[in-house]
Amino acid sequence: MMPPNQLPLGQPTRYTDRYDNRLLCPVPRRLKRQELGLSEPLPFVGEDQWNGYELSWLNPKGKPVVALLQLRIPCHSPNLIESKSLKLYLNSYNQTPFATETAVAEQLRADLSAVAGAEIAVTLSSPDDLELWQIGRLPGQSLDALDITVDRYQVDSGLLHCLPDAHEVEERLYSHLLKSNCLITSQPDWASLWLHYRGPAIDHAGLLRYLISFRRHNEFHEQCVERIFTDVLHRCRPVQLSVYARYTRRGGLDINPWRSTHTPQAPNWRLARQ
Asked: Is 162 a catalytic residue?
C-alpha cells in the first residue's frame, strides 16, 4: 500500500484558521458570456443562491459559535466567486474572535460584495431554525421517467425543439439527472434542474436528452445555468422563462443559480440531496 503522502488523492491544501479575505478568488462572468454571445442588456435577471453549512468563529470568550449561511449574489455582478476560494475564506473564520453575529455577517457582506463587484445579501441562522431548512420537492412534472435512448454526453442544443404545431402552454418541468463537471478540477457536480416557461410546447424527451448531454461538460454551476437558459430561449422561443439548478453540496457549500426573464429572486427549495 502506498504511503498516505504519496496517494494521488487528498494532497494537502493549506487551510488557515485566522481571518484572511485575500483567499477569495473572483472569476469574471464576461468570459463565458462572450462565448454564449451574451452582451448588455442581458436577456435574464437572477442571482446565485448559496447555502453554507460549515461556518464557525469564536466569541470574545473563545467559545466557538456555529451558523448556517445564505448568500444571494446578483447575476449582474461583474464576478462570480470561485467556490473553493470561498471555502478557504470561510475556514479562516474558525479561530477568529468576533464580538457579535452581526459583526460576522457584516464582514462577510463587505468582503464578498467587494470581490463580486455588487452588493451581496448575507443571512446567518441557527442550526435550530429548522423551518428555514426543510427538505421539499420541486413543483411541477418530473421528466425522469421518460423512456428515452441517450447517446450524447457533450452539450448539444440541437436536441431542444418544440412540438410540431405547438400551441402556447405553461409548464413547470424538472429533472434530477443533470451532471456537469467543475471547470477547474473536473470533479463531478450533481444537480436537479427546474424549468418554468410559457410559450410553444417544448418536446419533453428532447429537453431531457439535452440536460443529460451536460454529463461530460466542464463549466461552473452558474455558467451551466446561463447556457441552459440561453439555449432554451433561442431554440424554443418561450414568452417567459425561468431556469433554476439546485446543486448538491461540495466542501460544505451548495450553489443554486437562478436565471429568469422576469423574476430576479430565487426561492430556496432545499432538496433531499442537499
From this structure: no
